[in-house]
Amino acid sequence: MTIRVLVADDQEAAREALRLILDGEPDIDVIATAADGAEAVHRALLRRPDVVVMDLRMPGMDGIAAIGRLAAAESAPRVLALTTFDLDEYLFGALRAGAAGFLLKDSDPDVLIAAIRELHQGRGLIDPQVTGRLISRFAALSPRPATSELDLLTPREHHVLRLLARGLSNGEIATACTIEEGTVKTHVNRILTKLGLRTRVHAAIYAHEHGIVTREMP
Amino acid sequence: MTIRVLVADDQEAAREALRLILDGEPDIDVIATAADGAEAVHRALLRRPDVVVMDLRMPGMDGIAAIGRLAAAESAPRVLALTTFDLDEYLFGALRAGAAGFLLKDSDPDVLIAAIRELHQGRGLIDPQVTGRLISRFAALSPRPATSELDLLTPREHHVLRLLARGLSNGEIATACTIEEGTVKTHVNRILTKLGLRTRVHAAIYAHEHGIVTREMP
DNA sequence: CCAGTCGTCCACCTTTCGATAGATCTGCGG
DNA sequence: CCGCAGATCTATCGAAAGGTGGACGACTGG
Questions:
Q1: Can you give the pTM of this predicted structure?
Q2: Is the pLDDT of residue B216 over 50?
Q3: Measured between alpha carbons, how far is A99 from A53 in angstroms, rounded to an integer?
Q4: I want to staple B49 with a disulfide (CB 3.0 to 4.6 A). Which of A74, B6, B92, B119 is the partner?
Q5: Closest CB from A68, A132, A136 relative to B145
Q6: Closest nucleotide to B169's CA, by C1' atom?
């Protein structure tokens, strides 16, 4: 079973080079090409390739926007983002948009071919040259390991903080806990004191940055 | 210049196997081993290896906790997390704690060796088998593509929201903008109306979740 | 030109918040 | 048993925050 590939790159030469490399493989079939993002989306929806090799820097609708469109589609193809320029914005933007793989253009043809096979297997792939930055960014985005002054809070205070961080007023928290509003105020006060904060807004921000809040997925 | 490596694994056999594999390389030198997290941290601080190969599942202080300690240290070594069990918790936990690389134990010795060299070069490395999940999680964690009701806000309102989301009071915002507090209240009100929110706490949360806030690094 | 819209600004009044003081209640060691 | 510490609860009062109405200039299309 051959892997159906669509190649999107604004440069004629690059498209042909990619086609040559990929069509040399028995299990890979380049079924279409595109010269900009809009064309890539259009043809991908029409031809339903398994994998889209997408240059990120293209005129008109750029690669990242195109990836976003494709990712939103039904039976979305696996997208391999390809770029000459190693910019954070490209890397993170492409992954955020829904790319399954990211490669720099100076990679060997073998690597590119292997990457397409990986993607087709359902796996992801990141260029080793940029893996470090992805890891760093990931760590920075992730909630902290709960090693903080949060342990100073009593269970009640912790609960109140959670509700506060969802935007509930003191009165609403009181109702939710079946206690008086005055009591809630005390709890909020102790929370602020213990955490060294000034207002409930700070507390809400603190809670979110420490990953206390269970973000609901609608 | 040889790469100084510390191997941490609770199983004697695994430690010896790793030592054998790694000491076979001319540019790699296993300078110490450890049988649990605490020992790994202690010896790493003492011997200052370039790379720590850390099993994640260990008695006592586990690997992830140990990685956290090491990452907090000065001249922290690069940590390669190793695990038999491919659990999300291990992968994300290790990276969050500060690991520079993540490999499953069924990897070839060659891959392990190559990984250590990659880490020593300052790059990161993720086992291809789990790269896909890292990408998905990353995409889920990343702020949305800024396609929101935020565009409804005037420049002034946008600025006020930024300050509000840092925890400034109306009075402080007024001072910062050299306008009256009453004016700030109007802006806040319009922000709440436009974004469909109820209180400034909601606005602060909203701003953070949409990545408006430039988090300062002190 | 002028009516309408939009952004910015300010003041008044009500509700909510935040700081403070103190009342119960519970668990723990002497 | 007693005292003490900490958690939980309540009440009061000055300070913010939030809702509302309206003024003023700038820009826009008849």
A1: 0.69
A2: no
A3: 10
A4: B6
A5: A68
A6: D16
